Amino acid sequence: MHGLWLEKFLPSPSEDQITGSGITRGYKYFSRGLSVILLVIVLVPLTLISFLAHYQYESLLQEEEMAQLLLNLEGGKSTIEAFVSELQSVVKFVARDDRYEELLEPRELEALFVRLKNEYPGFADIEIIDTDGKQRAYYGPYTLPKHNYSDQTWYKKVLTHGVHISNVFSGFRHVPHFVVAVSREHPHKKGHWVLRVTIDGKTLQKFIDTIKTNYADDMFLVDVGCVVQTQPQKYGKIGEKCILKIDEDLAAKRLGAIKKGRESISQESMGMMVVKKTFEGQEITHAVVDILNTPWKLVLVKEQYLYAETWLQFKIKLITMFLTCVIVSVFVILEISTAITNHLRESDKKRQQLYSEAEHNNKLASIGRLAAGVAHEINNPLSIINQKTGLVQDLMELTGDFEYKDAMEEAHESIQKSVNRCKTITHRLLGFARQTDVQVEEIDINAVLGEVADFLAKEAMYNQIKIGYELGENVGKIFSDRGPLQQVFLNIINNAIDAIGNNGTITLSSRQIDPNTILVEIVDDGPGMPEEVRKRIFEPFFTTKETGKGTGLGLSITYGLVKKLGGDIKVTTEIGKGTTFEVTLPVQQSN
Amino acid sequence: MIKSKVLIIDDEIEFASTLCQRLKLRGMAAVDVHSGAEGIACLPKMNPGIVILDLKMPDMNGVDVLEKIKEYDPSIEVIMLTGHGSSGSGVEAKEKGAFDYAMKPLDIKDLLNTIEAADNKRSKV
User: Fold this and answer.
1) Does A421 touch chain B if contact means CB atoms closer than 8 Å?
2) Which residues, including other chains, have CB under 8 Å from residue B13's CB and lie 6 or more apart?
3) Which chain A positions have a beta carbon within 8 Å of B105's beta carbon?
């Protein structure tokens, strides 16, 4: 049941691909498929976790950042409000109802102004305005014409609200200043008189510069129309519109719309607004808050995150860790899938080998049985032919000369030769399949090799073939059947002599490869043979010799004998280099 | 000169009769029969000294016939014929009392030598 779903994704390396190149391609696909699946299994969670960590930490830092920003803004706002409220209190105190007459006296006004100026050096001038909006008294460095303020907005506002703080403007004085005005009921007439104090814009500037902390990259005031009131370090000039376009942000906030892109506006409590935007290629955050009872808004600009350094370090660590994990897992996964594929390929190869070996054995066995059956059937009529020709021979010998006797004797001889040839074949075939028991005796394998080689020495000598020995000295005796063993070596060495033809060497070697196995190698330096021949060499009737010279049974009988003796035979060959027969034999017969 | 009578038992009629004929040509008293039972039956009538016996016949196994012959007269020498290309069954038969074995197709000279040896053995007894 295992791996059923996995098989849908993984190509099978060996199915339907019998040829060598197909198998190679199949394993390549399998290895790739396995790598991809393992990579997905490992890398997807890793990537997800990394992204999650990234965003989680980022939002944590942003929240912290926002809290810091709002804290600073809140601090600035309350300080400015306290300052403004103090100014208002002073002016309100000076403009007590009963002091109207007194203040119209130039000397009194001057004395008051000097006292105030001592306390608040930013006070620029002071004037008293009558119920009809006309200036009644003035003290200050400027020469101001006796103005009628009755149709001016600030005058109307001060009459309505009792107290008014203006935005910063240059006006008749031609220097930036702002006004604090207070209206009081006229002691004698119906209506209100107004005390107006002009304060130098620099006072406000100094104050803002004082409260600006290192945290803020810029801090300044704007009025309701977003005209800059105190000099920013970077974001505009006094009297001009703020280049951060805060008015647009405010409009967006009012509409509840959030601009697309990189900008985001978050509405916070207590009239604060935080805007993130890209300004001149830099990401900045600015926060705006209304200053109570004034036309001003405090703007705080933060160009860089407070935690930028921490964030950068975290990002570097995260990316390093992520990349390390990716590299390590890619490496390990590739190694693992290569190892698994190799293992699979090896075991498939082994299985294929066992399969073809079994197939080969089976084939040899059935061919053997068939051959034996045929041989047996042919042997009987052959015996009759043999007897009949014998009888003809006998009769001819008994008969005197007659016409064509020589020709008949010649024909008879030829028949007899053919019968003998057939006899050799049938006997060999029957020998190939015979079922006699193995007669076990103690045998010195080196001695057997020596005997067989001696037997063939003359034939080898005629063909200028040397027989060399590399016999292992400590090869013990084995229990086997001497006859078949001799036949095995005789066939192989004979074959080697035939293969070499003329001039060459046959080397016989023996060695013990493990306590129960002896290996005998018969190596020739003949021409070798092609792979097609090597594959079929143990098949009955397979011969490369000329017709009539070989039966094609020698090596198949050899194969059968070795198997019966409990051993194994293998052949390796290389064209132009020679052929090696390896015969392994058990030291003990298993049955 | 072979003194003993020779009985040939083989189910291949052509083979047995031809061999019989050839032995007769060589001056031997030879008879051929074509089954194991027939062979055993003609023993008292013919009283052969040498039997040439096929190892495999449809009615009886050659070895069984050999045993019956030896029971009847242990002095009868039996030469087994085997068509199986193996000496194994021949060896087995020798252990059971056969004089020797010969493989089909027969070499007449070898067979004659064997018959002579068997005859010599009988005349010594």
Assistant:
1) no
2) B34
3) 379, 382-383, 385-387, 419, 423
- Alpha-carbon distance of A42 to A46, in angstroms, equals 6
- A387 vs B: CB within 8 A: yes
Same fold, A95-205 and A214-306: yes
A-B CB pairs within 8 A amount to: 70
Strands of A186-271 (E only): list them: 192-200, 218-223, 264-267
Model pTM? 0.47
**The pair of three-digit structure tokens given for residue A556, joined into one six-digit string:** 């198949």
Residues A338, A342, A348, A349, CA torsion sign:
positive
CA A582 centroid distance within chain: 49
Interface test mutation site (partner A, options B57, B104, B109, max chain A beta carbons within 10 A): B104
Show Cβ contacts of residue A368 under 8 Å, excluding neighbours closer than 6 positions: A432, A433, A540, A556, A560
| ipTM, interface predicted TM-score of the complex | 0.89
What are the tokens at A531? 């792979």
The verdict on residue B1 lying in a domain is no
Topology, domain A214-306:
Beta-Lactamase (3.30.450)
Report the relative pairing of strands A478-480 and A441-443 from DSSP bridges. antiparallel
pLDDT in tens, A74-92: 888 999 999 889 988 988 8
Per-residue model confidence as pLDDT tens digits over A193-245: 999 999 988 888 888 888 887 777 888 998 888 888 888 888 888 888 888 87
Work out the pLDDT band at A365, boundaries 50, 70, 90. Answer: low
Burial of B125 (0-12, 13-18, 19+ CB in 10 A): exposed
Chain B residues in contact with A376 by the CB 8 A cut-off are 83-84
Tell me the CA distances in angstroms from A171 to A144, A168, A174, A223, A240, one per residue in order.
11, 9, 6, 16, 15
The number of folded domains in chain B is: 1
Task: Name chain A contacts of B103, Cβ cutoff 8 Å.
Answer: 427
Give the tens place of pLDDT for each residue, A7-29: 666 666 554 444 444 456 688 88
- For the domain A436-586, what is the CATH code? 3.30.565.10
